[in-house]
Structure to design on (63 residues):
């Protein structure tokens, strides 16, 4: 159980394939902007930045 997971809060779980290639601030910016397309945009951004590892992203929004 996650305590304090309030309405509209977002949890981002990701592998180092993303965090090594995209700054944390950009990850959260994309996740907050449009959760429906954020995972694809973040994978694309990591690959465009020279992605060399597997990338896994899970975004959960409390609605």
């Amino acid at each position: 159980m996650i305590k304090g997971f309030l309405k509209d809060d977002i949890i981002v779980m990701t592998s180092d394939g993303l965090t090594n290639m995209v700054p944390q601030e950009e990850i959260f910016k994309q996740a907050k902007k449009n959760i429906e397309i954020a995972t694809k945009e973040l994978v694309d951004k990591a690959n465009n930045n020279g992605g060399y590892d597997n990338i896994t992203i899970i975004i959960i929004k409390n609605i």
The chain has one domain: 10-61.
